[in-house]
Amino acid sequence: MPFTVAIDGPAASGKGTIARAIARHFGFHHLDTGLLYRATGVLGGDPVEAARALTPADIERDDLRSAHAGQAASRVAAIPEVRAALVDFQRRFALQEPGAVLDGRDIGTVICPGAALKLYVVASDEVRAARRAAELGADPALMLDELRERDARDMARATAPLRPAEDAVLLDTSELSIDEAIARAIAEVARVRSG
Ligand code: CDP
């Protein structure tokens, strides 16, 4: 059985950085599942058709990181048929040896409920807005509105809403540097692997 790490949390909480670092440290595969929804959102047309026809090249587009793509993603992500179309790809990805890290909103609750480790990464709204503003060269106040709007939609949707799995380990990165957050996450993986 390959080792799966499920990382979920709200927008810009640090889950992508932590997921990449865990994958690098342990030699695991990494999938940023947000890219699947971002690509589905920016492709336009019928989102269900777009999700069903998604190709690996679509998730490598260089316009997927924008706030516009994030909003488009969270709108299409509320459509149950879009989510259903993306399940198999994510579950197959998780089966790769020697292990995989997937980050998103529903990895621990829906995609990989049997994951060896589930992390739920959070940070204060202000810290998340400041981080995302620095990343995108955008205004922090506008980012704060954007993240809150997206989080509210992600938490309120009927299908696979954003919430921690019951057995998730909470990691609050508000007061942590990137290196500290990564060190804590790696320690959690090491604890589970040795256990
Ligand atoms: O990087 P950030 O946390 O801002 O966003 P992301 O992980 O790229 O996700 C973009 C949007 O896709 C989210 O706001 C969710 O609406 C949706 N998403 C989802 O519904 N389920 C996932 N597993 C991943 C993303």
Describe this structure in words.
- The protein is of the alpha/beta class and 195 residues long.
- It has a single domain, classed as Rossmann fold, CATH 3.40.50.300.
- Strands 2-3-1-4-5 form a 5-stranded parallel beta sheet, with helices on both faces.
- Helix 2 crosses helix 4 and helix 4 runs parallel beside helix 8.
- The longest helix has 17 residues.
- The chain starts with a strand and ends with a helix.
- The model has no long low-confidence stretch (mean pLDDT 97).
- It binds cytidine-5'-diphosphate.
- The site of cytidine-5'-diphosphate has 16 residues, from helix 2, helix 4 and helix 8.
User: Which stretches of 5+ consecutive residues score pLDDT under 50?
Assistant: none
> What overall geometry do the principal axes of the alpha carbons give?
globular
Q: Quick check: average pLDDT? A: 97
Order of helices and strands: EHEHHHHEHEHHEH
Q: Can you say what the CATH homologous superfamily is? A: P-loop containing nucleotide triphosphate hydrolases
* CA distance, first residue to last residue: 15 Å
Keywords:
binds cytidine-5'-diphosphate; single chain; Rossmann fold; 5 strands; 5-stranded parallel beta sheet; 9 helices; 195 residues; alpha/beta
Task: Describe the structure in brief.
This protein has 195 residues and is of the alpha/beta class.
Secondary structure elements and their pairing?
Layout: E1 3-8, H1 15-26, E2 29-32, H2 34-43, H3 47-52, H4 67-76, H5 80-94, E3 99-104, H6 107-111, E4 117-122, H7 125-136, H8 140-156, E5 169-172, H9 178-194
Parallel strand pairs: 1-3, 1-4, 2-3, 4-5
Helix pairs in contact: 1-9, 2-4, 4-8, 7-8
The chain binds cytidine-5'-diphosphate.
